[in-house]
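Appendix B. Chain record.
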Amino acid sequence: MIRNALTGAAVAAAITLPAAIAAPAAAADTYAFDTAHTDVVFRVDHLGFSDTIGRFNQVDGTIVLDEANPENSSVEVTIQAASLDTNHAKRDEHLRGADFFDVETHPTITFVSTAVERTGETTATVTGDFTLLGVTKPVTLEIVLNALKPHPIPSYEGVITAGFSGTATIQRSDFGMDAFVPAVGDEVAIVLEIEAFKQ
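Structure tokens predicted for this chain:
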């Protein structure tokens, strides 16, 4: 559902990636999404005139981050499909229906990583099983680690926080969502912005 994959900004997505930290961790650590600062955004071509941009307002997940051995890291993301929001109520109602997300039958969209490959000091590719409309196919995320440090806001009591940005591109027809292709684009760009707290 989009012409070009976005870079920066926010299904599926998230997400795990090697930490550029000098001192290796003794073991993998679990991080829970800060849902107030996690975004999954998508972008799709509309009739060649413009791209429609939407987001999901309910996203949760966990990251297992192994700083010493990033390839052992993992991530799971769950999106509530009905939380879709394109800033247009009538369109959102249509998108939640059988032509598109069919949220009554398929209430969640999920991503479960299967492999992490470090590509740079703060970058990685994360491949995983992406499930949409009950169809599961491999999707690869390009991930950037933005920060891994104690949270600076006192109310968070210095909890270690990880921040990631990610992008991916899917063909929605691969998952059975082929309504109105090509008028509404088949290619969908996904942007992930994730903050997660060490548990």
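Further analysis of this model is presented in Appendix C.
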